[in-house]
Amino acid sequence: MNYELSDTHKSLQAEMVRFCREEIAPDATLFDEAPPEEAAARMKSNIKKLAGVDVLQLLLGDDLLGRCIAGEELAHACPATFLAAISSATAFGRTVKRFGTETQRERYLPSLVAGEAIGAFACTEAEAGSDLAGMATTAEKRDGRWILSGEKDLVTNAPIADAFLILAWTDREGGLERGMTLFLVDRSAEGLTVGKPVETMGLRGALTSAIRLSNCAVGGEALLGAAAGAGYGHMSAILEEITLAIATLGIGIGVACMEESARHGKTKKAFGKPIGLFEGVGAKLAIMFTLNDIGRMMTFRAAWAMEQKEPEAPILASCAKLFTSEAAGKIADLAMQVHGGHGYLKGAAVERLYRDARFAAIAYGTSEMQRAFIARDSLDRFRAA
Hints:
The chain is built from twelve helices and nine strands. It has three domains: 7-113, Butyryl-Coa Dehydrogenase, subunit A, domain 1, CATH 1.10.540; 119-230, Butyryl-CoA Dehydrogenase, subunit A, domain 2 (Beta Barrel); 233-380, Butyryl-CoA Dehydrogenase, subunit A, domain 3, CATH 1.20.140. Helices cover 55% and strands 14% of the residues.
C-alpha cells in the first residue's frame, strides 16, 4: 500500500484538525466533573456538531482509512466524544447499514447521520462478559411477537440512546452461530428500562449504564435483517470494524499525551534550561513519537487490508488494536513521568488522558483475547497437513 495520503484524505485531515480544535477540544475537560444531565447535553451537542461536518456519515461509510484519519483527530481532541460517536455510528449504525433490511435502514440511519438520534450496542452482561455462550438474555416468540428478557451491562450511550441493538438467544440449541439474534429496540419500548449512569474511571463523557428487559415485546420487524439466528455472525463482522476504531482511539490518546509532554518540555525549566533538553525527558518524547507512528502505520495497514478484503484483515486489525492500546498506556505513563507531580494533580490534562488510556486495552476484546486470537491464527498457519 502507499502510505502517502490522497488529496481527499489530506483535506479531511486538515478539516478535522481545525474543526476539533475549535468545536470539540475546548469542552473536553468539562466532561470530567459534569453531572450526568450536563454531560448528556454536552455529548448530544457534540454529536450534532459531528453531523454538521459529515463525520457521522463517514463513520457509517466504507472509507475505512478516512475513518481512521478523522477518528484520530477526534480522539486526540476528546476521547469520550470519539467513543460515543463510534458507539452510535459504527457499532449501531454500521451494523444496521450492513445487515439491516431496507426498511430498517430507512427508519434509523437518516436520523442517526443527522445527529438527531443516537444508537447503542448492547451485548455485554455482568455474568458473561466476553463469554457470549454464558449470556442469559433471551427472546421467545409468542403469538407472532418476540418477548425479550434479561439485562445488559456497561452499554455505552445507553443514558442518551434513542435505539438499541440488543443481542439475545433465540435458540440455545442452535449454539452461538445459529442461536443468537440482534434486535432493534426503541428506547420507548414497553418493558425496556435504562439504568442510571455509572461512574467510570475515564472517558466520563461517554455515558454508560445497564439496560433491563422485562417481557419487552417487539414485532418481527425488530429482528435485524428480518431473520433469526444470524446475530453472532453479524456481531463478529462488525467487531472487526470496532476493533479498528479502538486502535484509532489509542493513537489519538497517545498523540495528545505526546503533545502535552512536548509543550511541558519546552516551557518547564530546571537548572536554567527547558527540561526537554535533558536526555531523560527527550528520550521519553522519542519513545512516544515512535510508538504513535508505528501504531498509526499498523492501523492504516489494517484499514487498507479490510478495504481490499484481504484474508489477513481480521488479524491485522487485532494486531493494531493490541499494539496501539498498550502503547497508549505506555505513552500516558511516560507523559505522567515527564510532568512529574503536576501531572498527578486532579484536573491536569495528562491525568485525564492517563485514565482515558486504560480503557483501550480492555474494550471490545482485552489484550489477552487479542493475543489468543493472533496466536491461534499463527498456529493454524503451521498446522501439520
